[in-house]
Amino acid sequence: PSNGTGKTDCSDCGECVAVCPVGALVSRDFVYTTNAWDLKRIPATCAHCSSGCQIYYETKPTSIEDSSEKIYRVTNEWNYVSLCGAGRFGYDFENRVEGKDSEAFGSAVAALKKAETIRFNSVISNEEALMLQTFKEKRGVKLVNQDAYAFQKFLKAYSRPAGKLLYGSDFKEVMKSDFVISVGSALRNDNPNARYAFNNVQKMNKGAGLYFHPVGDTLVPTFGKNVECFAHKPGLEEAALYLILDLFAKKEDLPEKVVSYLDGFHSKGRKTIKERVMESITETVVDKETGNAKEVTKKVPKMVEKEVEVENNALVTLLGGSDSFADTFEKMMKKKERFSLIVGEDLYFHPKAENLAALLAMIESTCGMEVVMVPPKTNSLGVALICDLDESPAGYTVGYNEPGDFVLSALGDGDLDMPAMNQQEGTLTNMNKQVTPTNAALEYHGYELNDLMSAVGLGRHLTVDWTPALAEKRGFQAFAFDDLPNGYSNSGEEQRGYALKNPGKRAGNNMPQAFDEDMALDGEIAYRCNPQRQFNDFSDKAHQIFETFALYASPERAEALGEKVEVDFGSGTLACSVVADERMEGDIVKIPDFKSSKDIYTLFGRDRYKNVTIRKV
Predict the structure, then answer these.
(1) HSE-up of residue 547 (Cα within 13 Å, Cβ side)
(2) For the purposes of burial, counting CB atoms within 10 Å of the CB of 597, is it exposed (0-12), middle (13-18) or buried (19 or more)?
(3) Regarding beta strands 179-183 and 208-212, do their DSSP bridges make them parallel or antiparallel, or are they unpaired?
(4) Distance separating the N- and C-terminal Cα atoms of the chain
(5) DSSP category for residue 512
(6) Is 362 helix (H, G, I), strand (E, B) or coil?
(7) Could you give the angle at the alpha carbon of 354 between the alpha carbons of 172 and 383, nearest 5°?
(8) What pLDDT is stored for residue 83 in this prediction?
(9) Residue 277: CB partners within 8 Å, gap ≥ 6?
(10) What values do phi and psi take at 268, rounded to 5?
(11) SS3 assignment, position 228
């Protein structure tokens, strides 16, 4: 590090490079490689996470001898928005293909015709998702996408009591609030823009925040002095949502059954406190010169013990809150007017996900909060709206960037090559419920998914000819791809694609169930969670993203585990190295899911937390 020490707190986001007004701060990988003015800017959407940030791929020919285009760097509209390190530096994940392999294409067509399941992930455009859904409708195959399936089920469970298709707000509204709560999302790892929004509320709006998460993190408390963290046991997310109802809901708007249930967690108690009082002390003082004595009374401070009546909240205790939370919360609430709630992937993969969705809808309707969800992966929201997903594969399986009997891969390691997201035109649906366009920065000379659809009689002339057809699915609109804007105005207004429609409907039963304390996990626990700048196989392929696939643990836990371990999930085992995460606290360990070849979702099943046995190797 350039700070003269052995380590630095730098998170390698590259924001300093972006905002430097004279170009003195430059990425080491970019310096002396090209003149900035020689580069061509290609507007696109970052394909690493569900933030879907606007970026520019900056390209030019590789060299005099090699005329093929090369991405030299990524920039963004830094005046208006931030960009994380993965988006800025994880750009060279293209699949270089010299030409079309007709033999492999013929095998792929044959594989599709006999396929019973197509397995894919959410690093996929809306257009490709629509192709797969069309194929399912015509051929009756299963569509399996494990992250989007859980999110789709959660959205449907939320939609019934909420009376609308999608969550009501977005992260641009969250950044305007002055009190923000996060439940079920590892803010540092899951999504950079969710973390930025939480931090922005503290720094820019002088706000306050509550952070509920089982994995201790030393970064979140540094966002502001009014951030209260609850490091509860995994499985108690229902209790966290009930506590939010208890603290923020208008009791007259809640069903009597819920009010009575919440009252059951309150009890009266007595507590001994130390109080500073001023005590009057009278002393006789003799004047040394005259010898006259006089009485002098003065007040001196004194600490006395006093017993007072307090109201105890069992929910706060159960979630690991401090004894002084009631007093702290009262101070946090002063002059607060706008409230937001961020929920994440822990809720979608919870055994009681449907009950959590019902609680979320009740919070939105009774607490006056802006509610937002963090989709698990790049285009999970788009896939959840477009595809009719199945829970598990069966029979002969074609994998699209996922394991299968026949694999279509944009990583260059499958049976038939496919283009990566920086080689495609299409749209993505981000967590702000915005359908945003992305353009091809580099040429691709091989076959595309649309070619396979054409071979089975379902294709269109171009992939982007599927864009207007997205309107067949709820929320999307019939815009041609070339009519979609992708940029910002001079005033900083986002002009990218279009917003999903959020049609309303008659709200159903909104009565959540009581939670079970026995849902809490104890013992050795693994948490499916990626390092801060890793999201998928494509961020892993980029040469400047160096976080490795390993078991991540707090420094103390990592030291106890040693260099390498075997993790037994019951249904299978995983051998991996151990890496100390300086910002982690506690005994829970993190297992990444960014490598599809490791098939981590199968090991964890329908859970994000799993009881495991860890053995040193």
Answers:
(1) 27
(2) exposed
(3) parallel
(4) 33
(5) P
(6) helix
(7) 55
(8) 95
(9) 301, 302, 303, 304
(10) -90, 145
(11) strand
The C-alpha atoms of residue 515 and residue 264 are separated, in whole angstroms, by: 13
Query: What is 153-373's CATH topology?
Result: Dimethylsulfoxide Reductase; domain 2 (3.40.228)
Domain 520-616, CATH class in plain words: mainly beta
Amino acid found at 47: A
Q: How far apart are CA 217 and CA 188, in angstroms?
A: 8
Identify residue 156 by its one-letter amino acid code.
K
Domain ranges in the chain? 15-89, 102-145+387-484, 153-373, 520-616
Residue 47 · residue 538 · CB < 8 Å: yes
Residue 6 tokens read as 């052995």
- In sequence order, the 6+-apart residues with CB closer than 8 A to the CB of 318 are 232, 236, 239, 517
> 353-366 and 237-248 helices cross at what angle (nearest 10)?
10
Please tell me the number of Cα atoms within 13 Å of 326 on its side-chain side. Answer: 10
Instruction: Name the pTM for this structure.
Output: 0.92
* 515 sits in which H/E element: none
Q: What is the pLDDT of residue 6?
A: 63
183 SS3 class? strand
Phi, psi (degrees; rounded to nearest 5) at 288: -65, -30
CB contact set of 256 (below 8 Å; sequence gap of 6+): none
Contacts of 385 (CB under 8 A, 6+ apart): 429, 473, 474, 475, 476, 500
Within its chain, how far is the Cα of 534 from the centroid?
Answer: 12
Tokens of 347: 């809720």
Residues 6+ apart with CB under 8 A from 278: 299, 300, 301, 302
CA proximity to 144, closest of 604, 601, 527: 601
Longest dimension (CA), the chain: 119
d(CA 229, CA 403): 39
Q: Which residues of 320-351 are buried (b: 16+ CB within 10 A; e: fewer)?
A: ebeeebeeebeebeeeeebbbbbbbbbbbbbe
Q: Which two tokens stand for residue 102?
A: 């007709």
Are the beta carbons of 518 and 351 closer than 8 angstroms? no
Q: Which residue has the tokens 């979320």?
A: 360
3-state class (DSSP) for residue 399 = strand
CA angle, 539 as apex, 534 and 542 as ends, to 5°? 125
Helix (H, G, I), strand (E, B) or coil at 423: helix
Q: What is the DSSP string of 574-613?
A: EEEEEEE-TTEESS-EEE----GGG-HHHHHTT-SEEE-E
Weakly modelled stretches of the chain, pLDDT under 50: 1-3
Q: If you write DSSP's letter for every residue of 112-175 in order, what string do you get?
A: HHH-SEEEE-S-S-HHHHHHHHHHHHHH--EEE-HHHHHHHHHHHHHHHHHTBSS-S--HHHHT
Q: What is the pLDDT of residue 5?
A: 56
Q: Specify which residues 44 forms β-bridges with.
A: 55
* Residue 449, amino acid: L
Q: Is 406 in contact with 111 (CB distance < 8 Å)?
A: yes
Domain 102-145+387-484 sits in CATH at 3.40.50.740
Residue bearing tokens 């305007």: 176
> Which tens digits make up the pLDDT trace of 522-538?
999 999 999 999 999 99
What is the C-alpha separation between 597 and 578, in angstroms, rounded?
Answer: 19
Residue 222's contacts (CB-CB under 8 Å, 6 or more residues apart) are none
